[in-house]
Amino acid sequence: MGAATALYSATCHVLGKYSNGNLYPVNLSAVVGLSGWLPCSRTLRNRMERSIQAVRCAVSLPVLLCHGLGDDVVAYTHGERSAQVLNSVGFRDLTFRTYNRLGHYTVPEETDEVCHWLTARLGLQGSQS
């Protein structure tokens, strides 16, 4: 549920509110989703089309999605489709990574990818580990 929550948060952030209309008070700098799916994807396009500000915000929000082809909990196609939907509604700084033998867990290769991606996107190059 972590990736679903992260992706839902990304959509709420760019729209400025939850799907129930309540204001979304959190400012996000980047979003990472591992082996997950996008909730509310069927209604997202209509909600985004009603807000030029949301589209502008979506363009600049970095999103990293990683998914394994061997995931038997959340099918790979759900992750792939989530990336396609996000891209189609305006999320342009979106990276989708596929891992051939990865199931519904993490491996060092994926963890390294997340660390490198976050370091680059959040300008952490000079940070100490």
TrEMBL record:
Superkingdom as given in the UniProt entry: Eukaryota
Protein name per the record: Tesmin/TSO1-like CXC domain-containing protein, putative isoform 1
MF GO annotations: hydrolase activity
Pfam family, one: Abhydrolase_2
Organism listed in the record: Hibiscus syriacus (Rose of Sharon)
Domain spans labelled Phospholipase/carboxylesterase/thioesterase: 24-119
InterPro entries: AB_hydrolase_fold (IPR029058), PLipase/COase/thioEstase (IPR003140)
